[in-house]
Amino acid sequence: MLTIGAFARACRLSPKALRLYDELELLRPARVDPDSGYRYYAVDQLERARLVAWLRRLGMPLAGIRDVCALEPAAAAREIRAFWARIEAETAVRRDLAGFLVDHLAAVPAVPGKDTTMLELRYAAHSDRGLVRPSNQDTAYAGTRLLAVADGFGPAGAPASGAAVEALRFLDTEEVPAGNVLNLLEEAVRGATEAVRDVADPGETGTTLTALLWTGSKLALVHIGDSRAYLLRDGGLFRITHDHSVVQSLIDEGRLTPEEAAAHPQRAMLLKALTNGTPDLKLHDTHRGDRYLLCSDGLTAVVPEHRIRELLTAGRDPEEAVGSLVDAANAAGGPDNVSCVVADVV
């Protein structure tokens, strides 16, 4: 048996931390002296103690550490991988916000009379029922400042997706200052959530929502569900959203490959939708020549990304690109509603 001091030195946890973990039943001593209350630990407890120390250095909450320590090694490894994937995703959001704040606060005011290049969006949107579904539950919208795609599901999926997009349309007519755009978009999404709840029972019906709001120099993204947003820049296609779906979580944990996920029986099951979860909010710097695509999973489920890139690249303008993407989804069987919004920064 090791005294608490010797055990602390061996596992690199302080005696204070060991006493806390004892109280939390995370790492109980092997024996407690009934007279002095002094704690003693067995040598074979060192491995668990070191694991706790490593997980604390990783930043995992105590509740998560308790869960990991109760798992078999392979399952514990998957849980740690999933935890770190969440940390990286959250860090990316904070990195984007920090970058925006640095740029915004360090920006040099424009010199009066100096020539500046004004950027704007050219856009097109189309939503199609597909070849199998009896009705269209998608909604697609494109305007001067707002681009949006919503994919409804459940008995009132069409009213749900329509209500979500309609609740955001006021953003298309208001001047949007870059410094307040994320707050403005977050508030608008809360209104969209309430609008969906007003038209449908959240227990049976819901909708995804992926939208971009143009400030004149940047695009603010709000995203929840498995509709997607892509950026085509300099010939490369980049997905700028992360699916909130069961299969994506399995991919993040290393339990599925993207190829296996495409045929998984739960590939349409969502972890978050507009009335059930917190959406992702990000800011994106734009370049002249960028082309953005917003789409429902009726496109991405049947048209591979390399083909999407080819069609986006070949489209001479947003209208042609949207038409070719919808046609490609229907040529692949059109098993679902398909909606696409394409916008060029010009």
Q: Layout of helices and strands, plus pairs?
A:
Elements: E1 2-3, H1 4-11, H2 15-23, E2 31-32, E3 39-41, H3 46-58, H4 62-69, H5 73-106, E4 121-128, E5 138-142, E6 146-153, H6 157-168, H7 181-199, E7 206-207, E8 209-214, E9 218-224, E10 228-233, E11 236-239, H8 246-252, H9 258-261, E12 280-285, E13 291-295, H10 297-300, H11 305-314, H12 318-331, E14 338-345
Antiparallel strand pairs: 1-3, 2-3, 4-14, 5-6, 6-7, 6-8, 8-9, 9-12, 10-11, 10-13, 13-14
Provide a descriptive summary of the structure in words:
It contains twelve helices and 14 strands. The strands form three sheets. Strands 5, 6, 7, 8, 9 and 12 form a six-stranded antiparallel beta sheet that branches. The protein is elongated and about 80 Å long. A hairpin with a 6-residue loop joins β2 and β3. The protein has 346 residues and is of the alpha+beta class. The chain has helices at 4-11, 15-23, 46-58, 62-69, 73-106, 157-168, 181-199, 246-252, 258-261, 297-300, 305-314, 318-331, and strands at residues 2-3, 31-32, 39-41, 121-128, 138-142, 146-153, 206-207, 209-214, 218-224, 228-233, 236-239, 280-285, 291-295, 338-345.
